[in-house]
Amino acid sequence: MGAAALWEPPSPKVRELIRRGAELAVRPPAEWLEELDQATLSAPHNREFTEDPVLRAAARRSNRSNLLFWAAANVQAPGERVTANVGAAQVGIARELVRRGLNETGLDAYRAGQAVALRRWTEICFALTTDHDELRELLDVSSRSIAAFVDDTIAGIAAQIARERKELTSGSHAERLETVSLLLDGAPIPVARAEQRLGYRLAGQHTAAVVWSEAPDADLGDLDRAAELVAVVSGGSAGPGEPRPLTVLAGAATRWVWVHGRPDREQLRARAADLPGVRIAVGSSGEGVDGFRRSHLDALTVQRMLDRLSSPHQVASHDEVELVALLTADPKSAGQFVRRVLGDLETAEPEITEAVRAFVAAQCNASHAAARLYVHRNTLLRRLARADQLLPRPLAHNVVDVAAALEVLRWRRGA
Questions:
Q1: Does residue 194 form part of some domain?
Q2: Cα 8 to Cα 18, 58, 395, distances in angstroms
Q3: pTM of the predicted model, to two decimals?
Q4: Domain endpoint, select from 264, 299, 320
Q5: pLDDT in tens, 225-284
Q6: Sign of torsion, CA 368 369 375 376?
Q7: pLDDT at 4 over 80
Q8: DSSP class of residue 193?
Q9: Among 80, 90, 149, 290, which residue has the least CB neighbours within 10 Å?
Q10: Domain residue limits at 372
Q11: Considering only CA atoms, which of 182, 307, 337 is closest in space to residue 248?
């Protein structure tokens, strides 16, 4: 006999209470969703979720999908067993876990989310009735319902992971990903063998990039076009005889790219604007296998920095954000630093902060800074005077700290 056949429906009165509660749950307050995300993303063994923006975005989509799936099912059929949620959001989680070489332990996060959901649902239940018997039945039925739903959903995702893993471990992609992982881990794989498996020359200068999208409906073709674009603006696909770029499918919505040479940052930024759902983090450039590895790690650093700051920038390279990445490793401390150093300048008009940035970049030469901004020198001086009024300490007494804080601000807000 199946599990559904053993499920005992609640009394008519409690069915109505569940329906009323579910109608509230399908429109959860923002703080509920934030608490749910925090619980699942900070669960043990889930460091990969907290550090990877694509995984984190997938987890958030999955949380919302699960909550709304259970609530909507109980609006339609209150108190009946809810089938497993194995929709697009959950398939996406399975795909991302497998393609990063992770296993089912990441699904433990659903247990942490279950505890939060049950606590919030209990609050709803206490607001629905004061009758002790009704409340007892309501809590018993709904707690069993939530637990069964989570169990069934985890089982469904685990089965999807098994299917994804079987598909992934066959074909050339698996070989490329395995080889790249060995190189990144510093394993003693012979260079000639690695080159043969990758179809990519490991001698010479390399620059790595991470291409990804956090959108739930990401155009995978755009990700591939962006990966190719990195090579194009590097000269790496200029024609016959040029070294081939290397692209590895690191996740459903993530590509790892290596090219010989160095991408032209401005060209990349301009041409990537035609692919608005895609983001690109470019690493440093380096020689040989060590450069191959170091550049990739630096690209990941850039990706995580953009994510930490919720930065609107679509393209960023390690050489332009290295200082900001270091300063913002602890986002809370970085925010305190910016507020302490900039004071009211933090929220000033963009032309004021840009005037200060240009002035510092021009080595405090007002004429050169005005020329960079295409404004009259007197206009620049007025803006600098306004900045001094807003700063806790005059710019001349604190140039280095102000410049650093403004860099953090620029990458955080896109100004």
A1: no
A2: 14, 34, 72
A3: 0.70
A4: 320
A5: 899 899 889 865 444 445 568 998 887 788 999 999 899 999 999 999 999 889 999 999
A6: negative
A7: no
A8: H
A9: 290
A10: 331-413
A11: 182
